[in-house]
Design goal:
alpha/beta, Aspartate Aminotransferase, domain 1, Aspartate Aminotransferase, domain 2, 2 domains, 15 helices, transferase, PyrdxlP-dep_Trfase_major
């Protein structure tokens, strides 16, 4: 057997093991006419006629002007890929988000990897919520930071620690901070000589819960009063749907001056692609010099820059506010329908579990031990939802994730809940027939 065939055989064994654990992934296409309860395009901006028309008009203007970078930028930002459009856009977005400066990346993943891999220095420590995005973990793996320590998800104060977080499990942010300050060398953190980076998300994409950001900043400032506690907020899922005109959770809470950096992702509510780091001028300059995901990649082409510009202009003008209002009503309605169904059927926990707490974001997790079966049934009935399984979520928390959008209708919400109900009833009937 050739070396290549040996490698294929070895790789196939890994794939077979993943299939046996029901963790195999594959690419699929969404059938036309399927109701979308899966994508992250919460505001459905691509369905807005004015947004589409403005984008196409500006693209056509650029084509008529024989813009050389229309199809591609031609290089990285440090070579030939920079443009007046990119620099103007960065200044506009920094001003809109009340930040000193900003820097564009090809994706929020690139932004996170670039930021976490190069900024923390060898004596620094990164503390991170145990449920932060994979891109943050990738950045931390490349980081020179002395340690990366997790804390229990959205658990800030030591008095809040959940009984489930016992020995070997993440503890509260305060407990981790106090432990760091109490160990040998902790005085260097107390004095401000070494930095502690604290990584959280505005909205967590799997559970749809909102970060207790005020408590986070209060805790950090209490134990690190020298200003060396540097909070980083990933706002990929809060941009566009939180804050005045969609500025994000940090702005909604008025914490712009207390959060060291924000990572914005344009692939969710903004309906386009790309990422942005909001930061100080010095941090921006440092990233330009050291962030490998910026230095060694071809910069975004003009169509991407125009799409970001158009989406932001629509949001800045207040055009998205009716969409946000509609979206919140749809989420509330869908959750009520789910709760009514859940209370009526009282299904066993392995089939279905729904949180009683009203969602604060566009995401409603529906927990089940059989996510592939439930998702497949919904898809067969014209509703696109996806199964979410380990390792994307911790084992035992498998689910389908309902992502609602401004373009969804009340009838579609009724339909998806009815489909879930039909699946639950069929599974309960199968269980009864086996008794």
């Amino acid at each position: 057997m050739s070396q290549v065939n040996q490698l294929d055989a070895s790789l196939n064994k890994h794939l077979d093991r993943r299939k046996a654990r029901d963790m195999f992934r594959s690419l699929t296409l969404v059938p036309p006419g399927t109701a979308d309860f899966s994508s992250n395009a919460y505001l459905s901006l691509s369905a807005q006629p004015s947004v589409k028309q403005t984008f196409l008009s500006r693209l056509q203007d650029a084509a008529h002007a024989n813009t050389p970078s229309l199809l591609g930028s031609g290089g990285s930002r440090l070579l030939d890929g920079n443009s007046p459009k990119a620099e103007a856009l960065e200044k506009t977005l920094a001003a809109f988000h009340s930040a000193p400066a900003s820097l564009l990346f090809n994706s929020a993943m690139d932004a996170n990897v670039g930021l976490f891999s190069c900024v923390p220095q060898p004596d620094d420590v990164v503390l991170y919520d145990e449920l932060v995005h994979a891109s943050i973990h990738d950045g931390m793996r490349l980081s020179r930071a002395a340690e990366k320590l997790s804390f229990a998800h959205s658990t800030v104060w030591s008095t809040e620690e959940n009984v489930e977080h016992g020995k070997g499990k993440p503890e509260s942010l305060e407990t981790v901070l106090v432990g760091l300050l109490s160990r040998p060398g902790g005085h260097l953190f107390k004095s401000g000589e070494r930095n502690v980076f604290i990584s959280v998300e505005g909205v967590y994409s799997m559970d749809g819960d909102v970060c207790p950001l005020k408590d986070i900043t209060n805790c950090v400032e209490r134990w690190l009063p020298k200003g060396n506690g540097l909070v980083i907020v990933d706002e990929a899922h809060s941009l566009g749907v939180f804050g005045e005109r969609g500025q994000g959770l940090v702005s909604e809470l008025g914490l712009e001056d207390r959060v060291w950096a924000r990572v914005m992702g344009f692939g969710k509510a903004m309906g386009c692609s790309g990422g942005l780091i909001l930061c100080s001028d010095i941090t921006r300059s440092y990233l330009i010099n050291y962030a490998r995901t910026l230095i060694y990649t071809t910069a975004m082409a003009l169509p991407s820059l125009i799409s970001i510009e158009v989406a932001y202009e629509f949001m800045m003008s207040g055009g998205a506010e009716p969409l946000v209002h509609r979206l919140r009503n749809l989420v509330k309605n869908a959750h009520c329908l789910l709760m009514e169904m859940y209370e009526r059927l009282k299904p066993p926990s392995h089939l279905l579990r729904v949180s009683l707490v009203e969602p604060k974001s566009s995401i409603i997790p529906v927990f089940t031990d059989h996510p592939r079966s439930l998702a497949g049934y919904c898809q067969q009935n014209g509703f696109m939802v996806r199964p979410i399984v380990s390792p994307t979520v911790p084992k035992g928390t498998e689910r389908i994730r309902l992502c609602l959008h401004a373009a969804n209708t009340v009838d579609e919400a009724v339909g998806i809940v009815s489909a879930i109900e039909s699946w639950v009833v069929s599974q309960m009937n199968v269980s009864k027939s086996r008794l």
